[in-house]
Amino acid sequence: MISTHRLIDLMREVREKKPLLHVITNRVAINDSANGALAVGASPIMAEAHEEVEAIAAISGALELNIGNLTPYSIQSMLLSGRAANQAGVPVVLDPVGAGATDFRLNTVQKLLSELDIAIIRGNAGEIAALAGESWGAKGVDAGEGEGDVLAMADRVARQWHTVVAVSGAVDTITDGRQAYRVKNGHPLFPFMTGSGCLNGVIQAAYAAVSQNYLEASVAASVNYAIAGQLAGEKCAGPGAFRQKLMDELYLLDEEKVQRYADIEEVTV
Amino acid sequence: MISTHRLIDLMREVREKKPLLHVITNRVAINDSANGALAVGASPIMAEAHEEVEAIAAISGALELNIGNLTPYSIQSMLLSGRAANQAGVPVVLDPVGAGATDFRLNTVQKLLSELDIAIIRGNAGEIAALAGESWGAKGVDAGEGEGDVLAMADRVARQWHTVVAVSGAVDTITDGRQAYRVKNGHPLFPFMTGSGCLNGVIQAAYAAVSQNYLEASVAASVNYAIAGQLAGEKCAGPGAFRQKLMDELYLLDEEKVQRYADIEEVTV
Amino acid sequence: MISTHRLIDLMREVREKKPLLHVITNRVAINDSANGALAVGASPIMAEAHEEVEAIAAISGALELNIGNLTPYSIQSMLLSGRAANQAGVPVVLDPVGAGATDFRLNTVQKLLSELDIAIIRGNAGEIAALAGESWGAKGVDAGEGEGDVLAMADRVARQWHTVVAVSGAVDTITDGRQAYRVKNGHPLFPFMTGSGCLNGVIQAAYAAVSQNYLEASVAASVNYAIAGQLAGEKCAGPGAFRQKLMDELYLLDEEKVQRYADIEEVTV
């Protein structure tokens, strides 16, 4: 069981080390992803040019790859930066946005998983179901609702690719295929903020930059993000206010709040 | 005359059906467009890759094409997705951003109109004037001020392309060339929110996804958006607050508010 | 010494002339840059297509080039628009985002400086240090902390390229290599808003569009932006609220506030 103290230590380490995060992401989420990374204490750089992605990935604390707006150019950016990160020992986080929406996305995710070592996969249940080869009622890039067992799917993906899988939802499920956790913080306004899952992936990268135990890093990132959303949502009537207050709460999160609100449990794989 | 009850029914249908909206739009407006689509109850996907746009358009409730940041690549994305939508009977909404600013934009809009069946064109007066071949004091992508008769211009464009034309402004004008409506809700802060017209186009698409009567759909979308803006603006000192509250009001709009505030009139073409 | 009256006159001129600003910028900052330009009274157009950038640059009040997300395509957009602007006598503002982060960025900036006449370079201390050939503790696109003499570096860059250099930071330094000013307004939340430096560059362009004295224009823009940030920050607990209130304060800035808060001093070069 990961202690609340450990979660707090990692939150502090992100703020103290201010890791450089190399983020290749979609045009919808790019601004919130950068602001959210700054709010938790990291230093984001959203570079995609083939001429520079290898150099940047190699000196970063972590690399985050998000397939929300793929182009042939950006796929190549991801492969170049991913290989450079792997070679330099920089952890890579993958966000398979809408993996089940088209063959093109699923094939791209599988190519990235085959060619790169991925530390953490962060997706919603529909996306993880696509990776697990299960049918699911996903709708475009939204999670949708399915009947499958989320933990069983996540475990299978984790074991297949030797990675941590973080499934976001009303309850988050995080597993490395041997140990698993559930994080029960969060708020119903999250799905009304476009790119809220993408920002989650960036925060996973911030924590992967400060702990080589990626299961622990992923749980800590999930708790950080979900508590901030919970505190933001309690003060909001709608998604416009939520988006603003989420950034404030990420910035204002402190030891006392994590101590008081963290709601996690270990579950049997 | 479209009844307020019908407007309310359509608002509910968007929320119940949660139509998948395929949106190809500019980088400025893309985030607000996705958030606004979620706020009214739709499920947006902003895909542009040639490998997947046909597949996504064909299964969407509506396709929205916005020419705000054209590239040769995105023009091809629009043609591919537009043809797939037409073939599948999926309505297409076109937003001719800055159509009068350069020959390149006007030519592109005319190419899209010639090759695709468009259900609704949503533009400001300067943009519709460009399509009608009239001079107008437009400035870049902003509406500018002109002396022309907005309804006459809109009617001409509607008849030429067999489409509904929705002209946004202090008063919105919506026509199919035979019947026309004015929507008088709105707020003076709208032009200070970049991409506010683009989001209007996305909401037109959300309503086109639930009613094959595109004139009715366009009036309902215009009323929905304009009332939300009016209620947001009344609470705001400036455009930063407006942008946030607009999202909240889109999310919070309900039957009672539409009943109370809808200010539309039928006008003689 | 530039008088407060002159700063106020320029602020009014931006609002009265509503200059068209052609902005080629990165995907992170593009939305805030457009909204901020509207808030100070300008009319932004974010065009990048090779087919139209020359035509738009030539009729604009100013052109702003920001290298935050370079691609081979956007570099060509910058060269085409920059040459057209130079030929038409339209001032060009350059924002060398992350110039020290990679050789690719530094080479691109030097190419732009060699081929174009630049009216104002707007960067943080790390970026200006890179142009001056000095080492600096920059981190990706963030300013970092260095030991160099900011004014000496800025002067050198200004004289080398016959341009005004505006260095943003806790205190802004603006120089043309002969005369220099410091602007002491601002707020510690600025670095937590991604693209806040990029928006500064756009506001520099808005002022360059109304005064051919680019030193004066740059000081006025810096004061406008820094006072708005100061007033916004005083009302905010975190960066989410700051971003919104900054837009409001840019829109609400008036003569009285500039009179009351402007904190500038001339410094000896």
From TrEMBL, chains A, B, C:
<dbReference type="InterPro" id="IPR000417">
    <property type="entry name" value="Hyethyz_kinase"/>
</dbReference>
<feature type="binding site">
    <location>
        <position position="195"/>
    </location>
    <ligand>
        <name>substrate</name>
    </ligand>
</feature>
<dbReference type="GO" id="GO:0004417">
    <property type="term" value="F:hydroxyethylthiazole kinase activity"/>
</dbReference>
<keyword id="KW-0784">Thiamine biosynthesis</keyword>
<dbReference type="InterPro" id="IPR029056">
    <property type="entry name" value="Ribokinase-like"/>
</dbReference>
<dbReference type="GO" id="GO:0009228">
    <property type="term" value="P:thiamine biosynthetic process"/>
</dbReference>
<dbReference type="GO" id="GO:0009229">
    <property type="term" value="P:thiamine diphosphate biosynthetic process"/>
</dbReference>
<dbReference type="GO" id="GO:0005524">
    <property type="term" value="F:ATP binding"/>
</dbReference>
<dbReference type="GO" id="GO:0000287">
    <property type="term" value="F:magnesium ion binding"/>
</dbReference>
<keyword id="KW-0418">Kinase</keyword>
<keyword id="KW-0808">Transferase</keyword>
<keyword id="KW-0479">Metal-binding</keyword>
<keyword id="KW-0547">Nucleotide-binding</keyword>
<comment type="function">
    <text>Catalyzes the phosphorylation of the hydroxyl group of 4-methyl-5-beta-hydroxyethylthiazole (THZ).</text>
</comment>
<comment type="similarity">
    <text>Belongs to the Thz kinase family.</text>
</comment>
<feature type="binding site">
    <location>
        <position position="168"/>
    </location>
    <ligand>
        <name>ATP</name>
    </ligand>
</feature>
<feature type="binding site">
    <location>
        <position position="122"/>
    </location>
    <ligand>
        <name>ATP</name>
    </ligand>
</feature>
<dbReference type="Pfam" id="PF02110">
    <property type="entry name" value="HK"/>
</dbReference>
<keyword id="KW-0067">ATP-binding</keyword>
<protein>
    <recommendedName>
        <fullName>Hydroxyethylthiazole kinase</fullName>
        <ecNumber>2.7.1.50</ecNumber>
    </recommendedName>
</protein>
<comment type="pathway">
    <text>Cofactor biosynthesis; thiamine diphosphate biosynthesis; 4-methyl-5-(2-phosphoethyl)-thiazole from 5-(2-hydroxyethyl)-4-methylthiazole: step 1/1.</text>
</comment>
<feature type="binding site">
    <location>
        <position position="46"/>
    </location>
    <ligand>
        <name>substrate</name>
    </ligand>
</feature>
<keyword id="KW-0460">Magnesium</keyword>
